[in-house]
Fold this sequence. Notes:
Transcriptional regulator (chains A, B), 2 domains, DNA-binding, alpha+beta, six-stranded antiparallel beta sheet, transcription regulation (chains A, B), homodimer, DNA-binding transcription factor activity (chains A, B)
Amino acid sequence: xDRSSGVPAFRQVAADLRxxxxxxxxxxxxxxxxxxxxVDNYGVSRPTIRDxxxxxRAEGRVDAVRGVGVFVRPPTQIxxxxxxxxxxxxxxxxxGAFMADAAxxxxxxxxSVKIRFEPADERVAGLLGIxxxxxVTVRDRVMRANGxxxxxxxxxLPRELTRxxxxxxxxTGPGGAYARLEEAGHAIGHYVEDVGSRMPxxxxxxxxxxxxxxxxxxxxxxxxxxxxxxxxxxxxTLPADRYRLTYEWAAE
Amino acid sequence: xDRSSGVPAFRQVAADLRxxxxxxxxxxxxxxxxxxxxVDNYGVSRPTIRDxxxxxRAEGRVDAVRGVGVFVRPPTQIxxxxxxxxxxxxxxxxxGAFMADAAxxxxxxxxSVKIRFEPADERVAGLLGIxxxxxVTVRDRVMRANGxxxxxxxxxLPRELTRxxxxxxxxTGPGGAYARLEEAGHAIGHYVEDVGSRMPxxxxxxxxxxxxxxxxxxxxxxxxxxxxxxxxxxxxTLPADRYRLTYEWAAE
DNA sequence: GGGGGGAACTGGTCAAGACAAGCTGACATG
DNA sequence: CATGTCAGCTTGTCTTGACCAGTTCCCCCC
Lengths: 252, 252
């Protein structure tokens, strides 16, 4: 502790704890000394210790459990979401990309869907190449693996494309909505995915059961017909600590 | 303020401020009432107000400036990093993917490189398909646009592939390291990118001049020779508020 | 009129104390 | 031996109070 360095005390404490964590002094899953012990160790007040721990929590390094202690967060298991899951071959036998992906990893996947119809706002209209206000079919999905929510997905299609098809039903049948579109003569030409990241809203954090300091990855996928017409857009929200996305392409 | 709801006061204050922000009552760039004013408005103590504001800062919604006030963070401008920048055609005329990308947007790109040689650790060895301990060439780059740091990139190649080439020099010449590899007979077959996200370390936050509550996007790209041999791996770190990644592929 | 100084704001840090709420384990009781 | 209770630990929340440090702007002085 250097009180004359100009660095706030709570940041010095946080830096020291962080060092000990990465150095392995506190192993993954291990409990840190209690706040009151840290008060004695560092010679600062409890709010200062709490400020330091809050910093580490915002960085996603530790979790605090009331009545128990503060623990070093263990490294998280990694899922993969490969774009090859969207191939027609993969669609032939299963219910869709997510179900296939999860099942392949030994998870028990499940998903609940809510369907609604609404006029397209400006963003949706722009991405789907339609007039704002045009009716779109919205499939709002919550995906779970072993009961744990792992992904939110909001899919939107021009209603014109879905009227009278099972895409407006909860169960879209084998291969999912993409398979139904192709059967209806809308062969998919290419996909575009737009990937970003941000901190979750409180609602997202609780829905996805996110620990503190964990961002979400946002993916917007658009599926285009072979003539370039946008068929579907899909806004996905993924917990960043449970997913990595893999993309692969040939050099040109 | 409902003191009997069980919801902590600072969360109620944060929720109320958040609502007003998304409702537009406090416009982007606008100043929130000072902490002491909020103390009067909500009838709670200042640390409670500060806890609420800290929450909004961790969410990336507001920025605090000492001596001035707390401001609603304006929506961030968006860059794009397209994979098509890696095509041979694009390499023909310029110095590399990043330089081309930035120049195309009217930025003045610059980058500083540090080169070193080190034995491969387990992860690097695994990804490059070599034995741990094998010497690799490391190109550690800091990329800037108009002086602002916008990307960190650590590129590693088996030293065997770079010995005697300008890849071990600061300036790799037109088209960058990939062009030199191809000239040396290592035609690139395909690329794989692995995308994730997390909160930055304090060092990353200061190097990338990140505001609070802004995650980083991590991309690990591996370039493979046409026979499948890994040629290069590149660990990139991007500020999530300044980048979105775009991937595009044909349906199969 | 121009410049310097300072008052009055702003957020940043820290202390000491109190009580609430959740968990664990020892201990008494059946 | 099984079970339920409770003491004693943990973190969570909130208060009052104080001082520091950066910014802005007005006012006085030159």
